[in-house]
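2024-03-11 09:14:02 DEBUG pipeline.ingest accepted 1 chain
2024-03-11 09:14:02 DEBUG pipeline.ingest length=108
2024-03-11 09:14:03 DEBUG pipeline.predict start
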Amino acid sequence: MVGVSDFFTRILKGDFLTKANSFKNWKVIFSVLGMSIVMITCAHQTDEKVIKIAVLTKQIRKLKAEYIDSATKVTHLKMESAIKGKVVHQGLKPSEKPPVKIVVKKVE
């Protein structure tokens, strides 16, 4: 039976990589290395996408606030009192008579 100190000594010397049947060990090491690289790459891509989502979410909030602000301004501009104030210098004023509804009947 191999002692613990012999085991660590062999690992530190690298005997498992230089012996005749070490090809299996190299396969395992390269497989683990390849999977590690793939995992790190996927993690970085995920982080980039999360950051991009956060930026786009902030932009969406900003655009929604801008839309609400613009809609409020348009609503105030369409109000009758605002229109009266803008056309009073042209001599226009509201009609004293109520509007008359014109009904057109189809002739068959």
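2024-03-11 09:14:41 DEBUG pipeline.report The helical segments are 4-13, 15-18, 23-78, 80-87.
2024-03-11 09:14:41 DEBUG pipeline.predict end
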